[in-house]
Amino acid sequence: MSIPPREAAVECRVRALAGIGLRAAHEQVMLDTRPTIGWLEVHSENYFGTGGRPQNQLQRIAEHYPISLHGIGLGLGNSQPPERAHLRALRQLRDLIHPVRISEHLCWNGHAGRYVPDLLPLPHTAATIAHVSAHIDRVQQYLGQAILIENVSSYVTWADAQMPEWEFLLEVANQSGCGILLDVNNVYVNACNHGFEPMEYLRHIPTYLIGEIHLAGHARREIDGQTLLIDTHDRPVAEDVWALYDALIRRTGPIPTLIERDSQLPPLPELLAEAERAAESMSAGGTIAS
């Protein structure tokens, strides 16, 4: 698209409030109790199609809360361009829900018609940047708006990598004109797994590109005598990740922040309490940076 990166991210950043990922188990209680929360994020693919209970529930919830659409299956790094059917379903959902943001993962998940249920990391090369940027541009042209791309967790590195992860992420955003959904937990996980300093990563991402932040939990596994961090989304945000987030917010000012939990869901009040902690960090972090 023709939207410059700065305007793309600002366009995606409405009010800097804390939110939670909405999962099916909490939909009815959200409707029944309508707790105070800044916004909600859903996985886009869970609401594809027309009609049906999931989509109807989401429409009802969208009457009371801003909704962000977060994709997990577009495969921006796949060898083939994003599928037209997927884009059509996403646009139909966008037109139905009127989300405040649309985001997708910077990853690949399939090749030659075969797909895996995972978010696989891409090689950090100039050729990959050009390839992925073209796919993002295709998505943005189809939707008529800028999207955000999220950095993913990884457990192996590519031998032909030409640059660190943060430079790769930044160059994709600059070439495609999209914004960044900065997952602080994924930065921490990758820093521990691959041996870099997480604050160095965060310092290299310009504030104007960050349209949203994710916070989630991770697990530690001992494999062949080495500790590996796994991005599990099944527990509270770790204290080390909170510390990184606090440092980031002190630099950037408030940015919409999501508490993300996908399994072992706690009672809704526990998620709301984590979101409140993020809101307190944003309040202490100062005014919105430009």
UniProtKB/TrEMBL annotation:
<dbReference type="Pfam" id="PF05114">
    <property type="entry name" value="MbnB_TglH_ChrH"/>
</dbReference>
<dbReference type="InterPro" id="IPR036237">
    <property type="entry name" value="Xyl_isomerase-like_sf"/>
</dbReference>
<protein>
    <recommendedName>
        <fullName>UPF0276 protein BW247_09060</fullName>
    </recommendedName>
</protein>
<comment type="similarity">
    <text>Belongs to the UPF0276 family.</text>
</comment>
<dbReference type="InterPro" id="IPR007801">
    <property type="entry name" value="MbnB/TglH/ChrH"/>
</dbReference>
